[in-house]
Design goal:
11 helices; three-stranded antiparallel beta sheet; Heat Shock Protein 90; Helix Hairpins; 456 residues; 10 strands; five-stranded mixed beta sheet; single chain; alpha+beta; 3 domains; elongated
Length: 456
């Protein structure tokens, strides 16, 4: 069936139809069975005897007679008072109880001139059941039921079986309908999560996209949307890469001209400021090129990397940079707890770890320590970079990996300058190496960036 609306409609309609049919058949069957018992009963000697006993001995005598008679015959005899209760206090069969409440609850006839039946004392409106009138004018309804058949248990089992079968059919149809709706929804959710995380290669065309109903059309539309987003992203990356390349050439010529000017005129504040800003611009262009390169296909082949040696070298380089740039009051300490080897892209892993450690150094207070630890288990290696800064608001924890995103504290602090690309590059680099990166605040204060990479 190609129409989802029709499928849902017919499924619910089928469940309701089956329920109505089963309920109707069951009700009709049991109603006819009771009516047959009551209709086939005729006034017999037993009824006449009950009337005589009630007239001569009253209600107490009728109770004694009913007890003796009931114990001597398999036929079930019930004598019901106006309140719908058996005079012996027995529990009425459920079906008979409903029937009694329906037919003996008529109000007594009113005495008026226009009602000839009401004026005649020995006449009462016709009722489908035999009734006895006591000395105190109390009316008792008498019901005689045949002996319970030996196959009554089969009838009860049949009723239970019909109810069970109805439940099974409705549950089966509901399960199949729910599965037909929920299973594609789960696949849609999985695909949208992948797209939100930047994985635009997730397609539904090979699975639910082959369906011809509304869900199949939605899956194909989602694939088309992902394709368009991928094309737009590729164009943006290519544009950023071309712009960066085009900017680097005039920037290089400007720096050469700046150096010549400094030789002629000597060091001045203006020329020093131009040199500082040109270096920042060159660094930003380099980051944009790195980010664009990681967004595309990496031409380098993966190879085995001694992660302990690589991290140790990066830590030494960062400590040297800190001293050469005047940040000698922040120290990076490396703690090696394992000697893992991974299979990955060297330049991507190096860039990621460098960016994370440099970022931690720049956000650390004076006379503090940045700790880098390396651990490993049976399947992966874990690198933790912990600083002693203020940490980050929980609402910004995921956003710090967005390109050009800067936290509110960084924006308000003039001493903390950056492009907001460092952690974005790190996340792309780790993802290219089939790893994972996350950030969380430490209980003792500060931020921890944790990288996990699969072992070779």
């Amino acid at each position: 069936m190609r129409n989802l609306f029709a499928r849902i409609f017919l499924s619910f309609w089928l469940i309701i139809l089956i329920t109505i049919i089963v309920a109707g058949i069951s009700g009709y069957y049991y109603s006819n069975r009771i009516d047959e018992h009551i209709t086939n009963f005729e006034v017999s000697d037993t009824v006449i005897e009950a009337g005589v006993i009630l007239e001569n001995q009253g209600l107490s005598g009728l109770r004694s007679w009913l007890g003796r008679t009931q114990s001597a015959t398999p036929i079930r005899i019930f004598i019901i008072d106006r309140g719908g209760r058996d005079i012996l206090g027995r529990q009425l069969p459920q079906d008979i109880d409903r029937w009694i409440k329906r037919f003996i609850s008529f109000p007594p006839p009113r005495m008026d001139r226009r009602n000839r039946i009401a004026r005649q004392r020995n006449l009462m409106p016709a009722r489908p059941l035999t009734q006895l009138v006591g000395p105190d004018n109390q009316i008792y309804t008498m019901i005689v039921l045949p002996e319970p058949p030996t196959y009554e248990w089969m009838l009860k089992q049949s009723r239970s079986l019909i109810i069970l079968l109805t439940l099974l059919v409705s549950i089966s149809i509901s399960y199949l309908l729910s599965r037909a709706i929920i299973q594609p929804v789960r696949q849609f959710r999985k695909a949208t999560i992948a797209i939100s995380q930047g994985d635009l290669d997730s397609h539904l065309g090979d699975t639910i996209g082959k369906r011809q109903d509304e869900i199949g059309k939605l899956a194909r539309d989602l694939d088309e949307m992902a394709k368009k987003i991928q094309e737009a992203s590729d164009q943006q990356i290519e544009l950023s890469r071309n712009i960066s390349h085009e900017l680097r050439s005039p920037l290089a010529r400007m720096r050469v001209a700046l150096e010549l000017a400094q030789r002629k005129t000597g060091e001045t504040y203006e020329l020093s400021r131009i040199e500082s800003e040109s270096k920042k611009l060159d660094k930003l262009i380099g980051q944009i090129l790195s980010y664009s390169k990681l967004k595309g296909e990496i031409e380098e082949n993966k190879k085995k990397i001694d992660l302990a040696a690589l991290v140790h070298e990066i830590v030494d380089n960062v400590n040297f940079e800190c001293k050469s740039t005047g940040i000698d009051d922040v120290e990076v300490i490396f703690q090696k707890n394992a000697q893992p080897v991974i299979n990955g892209f060297t330049f991507a892993i190096t860039g990621a770890i460098e960016n994370i450690i440099r970022n931690a150094v720049h956000h650390s207070p004076k006379k503090s320590v940045v700790r880098v630890t390396l651990d490993a288990d049976k399947q992966s290696t874990i690198i933790k970079v912990q600083d002693q800064g203020k940490g980050i608001n929980k609402g910004e924890m995921e956003k710090i990996f967005y390109p050009f995103y800067r936290t509110s504290d960084a924006k308000n602090d003039k001493n903390k300058k950056g492009s907001g690309l460092g952690l974005a590059i790190a996340k792309l680099a780790i993802k290219k190496n089939s790893g994972n990166i996350e950030a969380y605040n430490l209980d003792e204060g500060g931020l921890c960036i944790q990288i996990s990479l699969p072992l070779a």
